[in-house]
Amino acid sequence: MVTDATDEVIEAARHLLQHALPIEDRDDRFSDVWADNIRQPDVDFTAALVCAPTGHPVGVLTGTTFRGRLQLDALVSKNQWWGEADVLDQMLADLGPAIEAHDVDTLELWGRPSFEWHSLVAAKHDMQRVRALHQMRCSLPVEAQALTTRAFVRGEDEELLRSVNNRAFANHPDQGNLSPADLEEKLAEPWNREGGIRLHERDGVIAGFCWTKIHEAQGLGEIYAIGVDPDFHGQGLGVPMTASGLEWLTEQGLRTGMLYVEADNEPAIRTYRRLGFDVARTDMAWERATA
């Protein structure tokens, strides 16, 4: 077992991402930015690596602290020695002392995508399911009418974007309360593209934005965030704002769009279905208090 942010853990995580999930379900969890960040001594990070008897990794559990939470993400590959539930259970047990050493209030475990063995192990560790996110996909282009937008300009629009984002996502656990440092970190991610943040203006004011991601390996264009300033709510901007992001992704040569939505947000799901989206997979999170 490895319990620090070493190159061995990074290599194992990337290896398992390729072997534990089909290419259409892979993502940017283990990007170069991620690897560079966890090598820094002042970054709160913990990782456990379980190896099969042959020495090949069969599972990796990575985690970072975020707003009082230790968010854990498990990858487990099918193998002839260990069942998936056994691997995850062992990793959580081995990581116990490191988890207790973190000054956090909540332990959060994600399954991306989630499987039944995630649920079984979460229950064994007294964790309750708290979130379910649908990943929805559609074919590009879409027929919906798009809003007129302009590209976000680095060095000029950061505070405008943060202001609208934080008003639009005031109660969101992840996207809300975006700090300047948070924004810079997101802008540095390899999936961020020049022109990929679309701003919609009305009378010189940013009414909303559509922030996109490009997942090159999977050939996916993601609607990462749709934010509408509360002053412009009720004007029907959500669908055409989404369409503007999909239009830009289509112009980049992508043929499949993707987004995440809370599984219990039925109005949003109905809206996305009207744009041609269908549920492709579901990610889930379980948590428990650490005290």
Give the helices and strands, then pairings.
Elements: H1 7-20, H2 32-38, E1 45-51, E2 57-66, E3 69-76, H3 84-94, H4 96-101, E4 106-111, H5 116-124, E5 128-139, E6 150-151, H6 158-168, H7 180-187, E7 197-202, E8 205-215, E9 220-228, H8 238-251, E10 256-262, H9 266-274, E11 278-289
Parallel strand pairs: 3-4, 9-10
Antiparallel strand pairs: 1-2, 2-3, 4-11, 5-10, 5-11, 6-7, 7-8, 8-9
Helix pairs in contact: 3-5
Describe, in plain words, how this protein is organized in 3D.
The protein folds into two domains: 7-132, 3-Layer(aba) Sandwich (Aminopeptidase), CATH 3.40.630; 141-254, 3-Layer(aba) Sandwich (Aminopeptidase). It has nine helices and eleven strands. Helix content is 31%, strand content 31%. By secondary structure, it is of the alpha+beta class. The two termini are 25 Å apart. The chain has an eleven-stranded mixed beta sheet with strand order 1-2-3-4-11-5-10-9-8-7-6, with helices on both faces. It has helices spanning 7-20, 32-38, 84-94, 96-101, 116-124, 158-168, 180-187, 238-251, 266-274; strands at residues 45-51, 57-66, 69-76, 106-111, 128-139, 150-151, 197-202, 205-215, 220-228, 256-262, 278-289. Strand 8 (205-215) and strand 9 form a beta hairpin. The longest helix has 14 residues, at 7-20.
Quick gist of this model?
With 291 residues, the protein is of the alpha+beta class.
